Amino acid sequence: MSLLLYYALPALGSYAMLSIFFLRRPHLLHTPRAPTFRIRLGAHRGGSGELLENTMEAMENSMAQRSDLLELDCQLTRDRVVVVSHDENLCRQSGLNRDVGSLDFEDLPLYKEKLEVYFSPGHFAHGSDRRMVRLEDLFQRFPRTPMSVEIKGKNEELIREIAGLVRRYDRNEITIWASEKSSVMKKCKAANPEMPLSFTISRGFWVLLSYYLGLLPFIPIPEKFFFCFLPNIINRTYFPFSCSCLNQLLAVVSKWLIMRKSLIRHLEERGVQVVFWCLNEESDFEAAFSVGATGVMTDYPTALRHYLDNHGPAARTS
């Protein structure tokens, strides 16, 4: 046993020192990747706190606030039109208990006159524009605006249609594949490998595990975006579990695991932009930028733009 410790302890010590050395100097092992664009202000569902989510009116409003990214979810209609809609079922958004895929585009109902803001419970958005838009409409209206397109299910036809639209409008470098599931992301990558990838949930866990095991400096990272919830919002505006105690435990554990400046700095220097969601209060903006986040996803682009303009470079270096 003593002989094992005699050799093991120095080896572990050397490994730890090497890991810390390369964690702080990733350029020595990996070629730096210059970003095509940087996300400081991301508009969640097009800015769903100020106007009805995913409508053209909401997108226009977010762009007026100089948003760097429009965050979208897409569904496919019966006549194979890619529409911007968070839900497959239309009940919450429109009051009609039908799936998007069971209707042609022309038959889709209008949004309700008001919709509750998911990450600001008790707050409602209104708007004069209640029409669901096609993804192609957004590509035409905002040809050089970066967008993140999240795919929620294994709809290969939807994935192929999106991949084709991105190619047709020459948006390969500014349209991000997003999905929580690695199995879905694999299909997305196969459909259009030129589009940048974001982390899935399992890949996010792998990055955290690698960081704490000291492996992160030595492994390749193909993703360019890490969209992560901010632990501060759990049990306040984000409730992943029905049990309050579980949410509180998750908030404490995830804050300890995720909110590490050295982790975020390493990812940044490897060309991975870290963007926290979905933050709707100034204290949360401050919490995200204080640990070195690239940017923030919000339902209220006007509030975040006001924060960024008032804080300037301090929002990145505080």
TrEMBL record:
CDD domains: GDPD_GDE4. SUPFAM superfamilies: PLC-like phosphodiesterases. GO terms for cellular component: endoplasmic reticulum membrane; perinuclear region of cytoplasm. GO terms for biological process: glycerophospholipid catabolic process; N-acylethanolamine metabolic process; phosphatidylcholine catabolic process. Signal peptide: none annotated. Its main location: cytoplasm. Residues 39-308 form the GP-PDE domain. It is found in: Cytoplasm, Perinuclear region; Endoplasmic reticulum; Membrane. It is a multi-pass membrane protein. Belongs to the glycerophosphoryl diester phosphodiesterase family. This is Lysophospholipase D GDPD3. It comes from Pan troglodytes.
